[in-house]
Amino acid sequence: MAKRGCSTMIRVLVVAVLVSAAASWAQTPSPVAGQIAKAYGLDSYGQIEAIRYTFNLDIPGLVKLSHSWEWEPKTGKVSYEGKDKDGKPVKVSYMRSALSSQPDAVKNEVDPAFVNDNYWLLFPFHAYWDTSATVTDQGMHKLPVGSGSAKLVSVKYPTEGGYTPGDTWDLYVGKDNRVEQMVYHRGGPKKPSLVTATWAGYKKAGPLLVSTEHRGTADDKPLHISLSDVSVKLTGSDTWTKAE
To answer: Which of 14, 46, 50, 79 could connect to 93 by a Cys-Cys bridge, CB 3.0–4.6 Å?
Structure first.
């Protein structure tokens, strides 16, 4: 892992807007975003007590890292294992509701990494939950990579507020409402400006559908993101259900 792996990744590949924009931007959840989210298990999301996964990022010559997470959506508790910006092992648990009381390393490195990685895990849900975003169905378009076509659903965030204002996620969605490919356009000057990635390696973790393989480019540099060791714990159960 590169010495500055975690902080570099946050600057290079933070493609998330977990903090909602101002209430004045709020809109009614998009019907098309709802259709996509339902395909990924939105109706059963309330059954999820905890989620485990490892986010793996490889941009050759720039950064290679892994972050292991355990997250309790209902309580907001996050547990992390990985490395800090100097490559030293880190193991920490915290409540997101009490983030302001955490050390700077948690506030400035660990939690932003959680935001980024969580969007890669659950973006179809966030596109529905983030009512500050404008979601538009642009009809059938040619896929960015390879042959074929799919429905283009554009998710554009406001130019103010959130972690990365002005970002646009273009989702290329198949007839089964699964994302096949994605193009991310950054709204600000930070890099990368353009990320193109496949959504493949689909697995079911309990009621949730998860894409575990993303390959493509980040500003023309090869990109590989994978989600490994994905599992969920359901309400009333003490056991973990592994994604298969």
So the answer is: 79
